[in-house]
């Protein structure tokens, strides 16, 4: 060992190999990405019925809240945002669904990773982006792209990689995962210069539980009367809470949506096929698969998407109020209940899909695979075999953010719906 | 009763008139017409429909219902029902099945898409598979390569039939295939062998699609691709099973659409829905 060796900082990345953050001034990409979002917003503007206050949620997506509070950017739905909220910071989900940012990401990073990873990274190339306004970043090791993205992003902002266990076996990995979440708490408190109070954490958990109760209730109502709310508006409502919005005022508006849907009177029997949607995250403004499904005349009555109802479905369950017990409870919710395909077994998601089909009387299952995401792609094999064995009509749609295959996908979807309709 | 089906494909538009009062099933198809879709598919569809009416000696008022299918299925204003080409194709094959063992797998090679449809014992669609967004594995792919070799499509097919080699060619992307052809030409590979390689590459993809939906029973080949003898030969070799080429292979989907129109018409009549 030589003397010039510099010990790495307490962080996870070796300081000797830091490089300057890469920036690209691409006003074209910025303009296109705004245009794409505007187009989707206009498309949804034609819906009827729509929640009266839908603009509140759309505006949050378009102009995420700014203000003095520090911002913590995170990826995936496996990061316990309650920790961030308890420290008085805003939690901003950075998974990007904007097709206009795929190519800029590809230019710098790689063409061989999924569009979500490419677009999410591209947001950092633009100095004025929301991603770049974050003070800290948290990335779980939920796929190879994320695993490697951490070190790339660490050049931009202090970044914490949350290690996930390889299996969802709480007996073997419970302590490990709770430990990782504790380390995350340490990273956040260290950088934000604040103490994590148990009282504040419990308050944050309570708010999170309120959000999940809301999503569960709305999900149940939609399953009962899908005509009351488009799944695309449902996703807008849910995803607007990932923008760093304060949850209390968001919940107040969300409850108005619930009231409206609650009061919605069904005038005629809904004959549309009822689908359960599973697979890769669908993030604003790339609602292409949702557009296609609804335009083809089917209803998505439930989903297992980490960007849909599933993202908020499971509440954090607390038995004890000690610090360690709370970390375990967060791990239980965020790691061990996750339907993510990054774990060795796909049982969690499979069981969830089968439960939803059974409970909601769904007519079929559509799986959405994001091109270049090997994890979801590999899981489609077993998913399709299991659905077939149980005589549940199943369609796998694999695509990316681009629109070039729209008509092909439409034919496949419509043909699938025709066969669903004919099943005895 | 007269029903019509119009199949507005990416390359050609086809129409069929179905006469359900004809003496026998064999005489049920009263007329068919075809035109290149061109860049105004809606207008072409209208013209093909008028062509077929004229051929059948009928007026628009004689037709009880018209169904449209194919990628332009929603572009026209004279249709009464829209259905996908997958459903129409299955219906068309069911109506005029080839002799012998029952068909359980349909291969439909069109200009822009290739589809493989698995049928149940009852003839319902059990599963289907369709090529991804790339043109590789479709009729367009062969047309592109023929042009690259400076051959007409017919010459290209005839050349492929002459070859006795099995040169490997990748067909995952039409654009890459074109550069692969340039490479093969640079290595002095003979034109007929390149033509055969292109057909074999597509046949290999079709065979893997059939395996994906499960191979059983007899195979039936429809669509414009079924008129290509070299492709039929390559597919037969890849599957190692006999493949029936449907009679009037290009019109099967339009016929299926007409049958779909009839079925819907009768369904509504039965339920007394005006």
Account of the 3D structure:
The complex is a heterodimer of chains A (424) and B (274). Chain A is an alpha/beta fold. Chain A is 50% helix and 10% strand. The longest helix of chain A has 27 residues, at 198-224. Chain B has 274 residues and is α/β, with parallel strands linked by helices. Chain B is 41% helix and 22% strand. Chain B has helices at residues 41-56, 85-95, 139-148, 153-162, 174-186, 191-213, 229-239, 252-270, and strands at 2-8, 12-19, 29-36, 63-69, 81-82, 103-109, 114-119, 125-130, 218-222, 243-245. Chain B has a five-stranded mixed beta sheet. In chain B, a hairpin with a 4-residue loop joins strand 6 and strand 7. The longest helix of chain B has 23 residues, at 191-213. In chain B, 50% of the residues are buried. At the A-B interface, helix 16 of A face helix 2 and strand 8 of B.
User: Distance between termini of chain B?
Assistant: 17 Å
> What CATH architecture label of the largest domain in chain B applies?
2-Layer Sandwich
- Helix/strand order of chain A: HHEHEHHEHEHHHHEHEHHHEHEH
Q: Outline the low-pLDDT stretches of chain B.
A: none
Q: How many domains make up the coordinates of chain B?
A: 2
Overall mean pLDDT of chain B stands at: 92
Q: Write down the overall geometry of chain B.
A: globular
CATH C-level of the domain at 68-194 and 272-424 in chain A: Alpha Beta
If you consult CATH, what is the topology of the domain at 68-194 and 272-424 in chain A? Answer: Rossmann fold
Report the sheet-strand fraction of chain B.
15-25%
Strand content of chain A: 5-15%
Question: What is the CATH level 1 assignment of the largest domain in chain B?
Answer: Alpha Beta
Please identify the structural class of chain B as seen in this structure: alpha/beta
CATH topology term of the largest domain in chain B = Nucleotidyltransferase, domain 5
Number of helical segments of chain B?
Answer: 8
Helix and strand run of chain B: EEEHEEHEEEHHHHEHEH
Backbone CA Rg of chain B: 19 Å
Biggest sheet record of chain A: 4 strands, parallel
């Amino acid at each position: 060992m030589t003397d010039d060796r510099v010990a790495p900082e307490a962080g996870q990345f070796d300081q000797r190999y830091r490089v300057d953050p890469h920036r690209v001034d691409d006003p074209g990409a910025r303009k296109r990405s705004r245009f794409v979002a505007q187009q989707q917003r206009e498309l949804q503007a034609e819906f009827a019925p729509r929640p009266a206050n839908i603009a509140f949620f759309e505006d949050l997506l378009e102009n995420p809240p700014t203000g003095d509070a520090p911002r913590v950017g995170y990826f995936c739905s496996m990061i316990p945002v309650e920790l961030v909220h308890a420290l008085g910071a805003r939690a901003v989900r950075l998974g990007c669904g904007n097709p206009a940012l795929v190519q800029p990401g590809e230019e710098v990073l790689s063409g061989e990773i999924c569009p979500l990873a490419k677009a999410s990274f591209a947001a950092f190339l633009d100095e004025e982006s929301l991603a770049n306004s974050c003070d800290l970043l948290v990335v779980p090791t939920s796929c190879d792209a994320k695993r490697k993205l951490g070190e790339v992003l660490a050049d931009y902002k202090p970044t914490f990689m949350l290690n996930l266990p390889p299996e969802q076996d709480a007996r073997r990995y419970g302590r490990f995962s709770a430990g990782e979440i504790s380390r995350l708490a340490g990273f956040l408190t260290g950088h934000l210069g604040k103490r994590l109070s148990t009282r504040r954490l419990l308050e944050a958990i309570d708010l999170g539980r309120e959000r999940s109760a809301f999503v569960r209730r709305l999900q149940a109502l939609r399953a009962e009367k899908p005509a009351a709310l488009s799944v695309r508006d449902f996703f807008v409502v849910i995803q607007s809470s990932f923008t760093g919005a304060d949850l209390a005022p968001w919940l107040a508006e969300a409850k108005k949506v619930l009231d409206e849907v609650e009061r919605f009177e069904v005038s005629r029997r809904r004959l549309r096929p009822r689908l359960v949607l599973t697979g890769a995250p669908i993030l604003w403004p790339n609602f292409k698969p949702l557009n296609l499904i609804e335009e083809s005349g089917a209803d998505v009555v439930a989903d297992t998407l980490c960007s849909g109802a599933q993202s908020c479905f499971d509440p954090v369950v607390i038995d004890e109020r000690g610090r360690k017990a709370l970390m375990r409870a967060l791990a239980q919710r965020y790691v061990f209940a996750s339907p993510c395909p990054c774990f060795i077994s796909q049982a969690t998601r499979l069981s969830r899909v089968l439960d939803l089909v059974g409970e909601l009387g769904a007519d079929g299952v559509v799986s959405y695979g994001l091109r270049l995401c090997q994890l979801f792609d590999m899981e489609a094999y077993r998913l399709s075999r299991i659905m077939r064995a149980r005589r549940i009509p199943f369609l796998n749609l694999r695509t990316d953010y681009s629109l070039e295959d729209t008509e092909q996908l439409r034919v496949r979807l419509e043909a699938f719906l025709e066969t669903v309709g004919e099943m005895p | 009763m007269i029903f019509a089906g119009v199949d507005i494909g990416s390359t050609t538009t086809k129409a069929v008139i179905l006469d359900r009062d004809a003496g026998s099933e064999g005489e049920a198809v009263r007329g068919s017409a075809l035109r290149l879709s061109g860049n105004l598919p809606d207008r072409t569809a209208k013209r093909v429909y008028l062509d077929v009416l004229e051929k059948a000696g009928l007026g628009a008022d004689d037709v009880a219902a018209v169904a449209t299918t194919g990628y332009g299925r929603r572009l026209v204003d004279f249709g009464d029902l829209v259905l996908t080409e997958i459903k129409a194709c299955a219906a068309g094959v069911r109506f005029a099945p080839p002799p012998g063992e029952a068909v359980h797998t349909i291969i439909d090679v069109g200009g822009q898409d290739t589809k493989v449809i698995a049928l149940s014992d009852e003839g319902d669609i059990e599963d289907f598979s369709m090529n991804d967004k790339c043109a590789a594995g479709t009729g367009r792919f062969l047309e592109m390569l023929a042009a690259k070799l400076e051959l007409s499509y017919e010459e290209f097919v005839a050349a492929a039939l002459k070859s006795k080699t099995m040169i490997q060619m990748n067909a995952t992307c039409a654009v890459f295939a074109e550069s692969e052809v340039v490479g093969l030409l640079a290595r002095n590979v003979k034109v007929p062998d390149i033509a055969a390689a292109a057909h074999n590459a597509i046949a290999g993809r079709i065979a893997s699609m059939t395996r994906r939906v499960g191979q059983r029973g007899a195979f039936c080949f429809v669509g414009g691709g079924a008129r290509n003898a070299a492709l039929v030969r390559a597919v037969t070799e890849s599957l190692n099973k006999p493949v029936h080429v449907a009679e009037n292979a290009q019109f099967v989907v339009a016929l299926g659409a007409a049958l779909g129109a009839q079925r819907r018409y009768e369904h509504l009549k039965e339920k007394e829905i005006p």
